[in-house]
Write a structure and sequence with these properties.
Layout (H helix, E strand, L loop, with lengths): L1 H15 L20 H8 L2 H15 L4 H19 L16 H13 L4 H20 L26 H16 L5 H16 L3 H5 L6 E2 L4 E5 L5 E5 L2 H19 L19 H11 L5 H14 L4 H8 L4 H4 L1 H5 L1 H11 L1 H7 L1 H6 L10
Antiparallel strand pairs: 1-2, 2-3
Helix pairs in contact: 1-3, 1-4, 3-4, 4-6, 7-8, 8-10, 8-12, 16-17
Amino acid sequence: MLARWIRGLVLRWGRRENLGMGQTSGSAGSGGAGPSPAAREHLTAGGHSMLREYMTHLRVEKGLRPLSCEAYLRDLEMFAEFLEGGGGDGVGVKTFLSAEQGDVSGFMQHLREHGVQSRSIARKLSCVRGFYKWLLMDKRVRRDPTVNIESPSSWKVLPKSLAESEVSEMLGKTGAAARAADASGAALRDHAMLELLYAGGLRVGEIVALRQEDLRLETASVQVRGKGDKERIVPIGRSAVEAIENYVKRGRPELVRGAGMQRALFVSVRGHALTTQAVWQMVRGVNRQASPHKLRHSMATHMVEHGADLRSVQTILGHADIATTQVYTHLAIDRLKTVHRMCHPRARRREGSGLRAQGSEGAVGVEA
């Protein structure tokens, strides 16, 4: 298929240019088969060249990480394959440059018919929008076919989080292992990572990219490089500071022994920088229902439930737009209902118990 053939070309080019595109799983090449006549027609229009240049734009100018570039590439491959099949009207073979608004709408409908969730469809539409914005700026197309196409209404879904008791139980397990007299370097590392994931709301990619010089333990904070290579200072609590100090003093020297110089903060038993998969496995090993990203959501949810303002949560999480952070206000609705029942005069009168607690019916007023 065209998309698979394009992907093989781009990935091979990415490895030569040291973009890191081929480090993720599932990045196989073309499978050895040459392109079909239709694929050649598409490639003559510059399909693979545009994707190659767009990947460079994302990685170099936008500062996106290799995994993000890989996700964008997959989405554009899928759209290219849809265009190869005739696009929205199913007639002929279309290209990126000849696509129209009906082709983009047809692509979304095609995804819906094949059971793709609304959130994933919205993400793919966002990817296609970014691609055509780049083509428009580069004057390769005269009009943007994604204009006036609305994203699915369920794009913003409520993120899943853990209860405070569940997080406490997880930290208790790793903490007990780290406090043992014969605690290994790996046990100290795992507890420090778990504390940091919850205390700072770090993404899994951010925590594996941390270096020793990023620690600011004297001010109870760490310097984090997030999406787009944007840096931010994230405050952490005393428990996280103590866990990291123990790991740096006792655990890390044991793990990096004989492995040479290593800048990464969290390392494997062989002294190499940890992978994101290793962090996922560690978290799942403590709680099968948890994940690094769920701990991030849990941290934000618990802060909002305890009265934190959205601007502070936005800064800690590294969200570029506060609209992304506002989703956590919906998660605190149970707490808001409880406060309303306890504090609102008419809600208390309906409950009945609030009036007795005041000792005077006149303290609340008379309902009309």
